[in-house]
Amino acid sequence: MVTNLSSTQPNNSTIKSSSLRISSLNCRSLSKSSSPSTRQEFVRYLRNQSLDILTLQETNAGDPEMQHTLNTLFNTTSTSWTSHCGIVSLNPKITLTPTLITCDQRMIVCEITHTQRMFDPITIITIYAPAQSAARKIFYDEILTLPLFSSSSLDDQGSGDQSIILTGDFNYDLSRYRPPSEGQNVSGQRRWIQHIQQSFVNCISPDPALRTFQRGSVSSTIDYIYTTADLQPSLTSSHVEYVNHHWTDHALLVSSFRFQSTRHGKGLWRANPRLINNKFFVSSLNNGLTRLCVKDT
């Protein structure tokens, strides 16, 4: 079983901590690999990375039969697949609930929850933007109209009503972005970049940025993992892993989070049954419960 989610509880504390490793990778048509053995080696490599959540782009997994094959290889059923993207839970304690798939199938939105409630629900989004410039501008124009990215759901400090981790192959290099001049017409892609910079935190942002794509002599940074500001204090590490170029020309991005949970205390304690005959105890308990009920109403 591949898992990196663990919990510890000091003897003198009711606080537990749990880690979450989430990754993003353009898998370059994993489902269309001409060699089944190559596909199996690729999946085996990914399963050995101790990941909890794996987000994928360029999946070509729109066919239900192929989705079943991939679920079998990853040894999981908690997944969401489209012809362009995929989100996979590799931890049996973490459940995916799909909440949105765009009509073009280039964006998947899921909510992840832990069976033991070790962290609050988190919204996971993965996107695979078109490689063609014109189509990419339209794509970003359209997803910016979704309520998920509206100002009411996500304010400029990323402290809206949702904790979000955003991953994907964005198909643009942020280092080449230049803010528009005053009065200049702003394309959908530029508005998207402005929105992301205002509302999200780049989890993998060394200077200079590490390349995430290389084909021959051409390399660039077009894959990203972002998070809303409320999750940034829980971010413990991030790295870029370069994988076998026979599998993909993209790098594997990994971000690790650690959450503190106070939901799990020391448990319920049984009172001494003789206390039921103690009039002072019964009266105090009754008064305390009455005040508590009045306070909650």
Automatic annotation (TrEMBL):
<protein>
    <recommendedName>
        <fullName>Endonuclease/exonuclease/phosphatase domain-containing protein</fullName>
    </recommendedName>
</protein>
<dbReference type="InterPro" id="IPR005135">
    <property type="entry name" value="Endo/exonuclease/phosphatase"/>
</dbReference>
<feature type="domain" description="Endonuclease/exonuclease/phosphatase">
    <location>
        <begin position="24"/>
        <end position="245"/>
    </location>
</feature>
<dbReference type="Pfam" id="PF03372">
    <property type="entry name" value="Exo_endo_phos"/>
</dbReference>
<dbReference type="InterPro" id="IPR036691">
    <property type="entry name" value="Endo/exonu/phosph_ase_sf"/>
</dbReference>
<dbReference type="GO" id="GO:0003824">
    <property type="term" value="F:catalytic activity"/>
</dbReference>
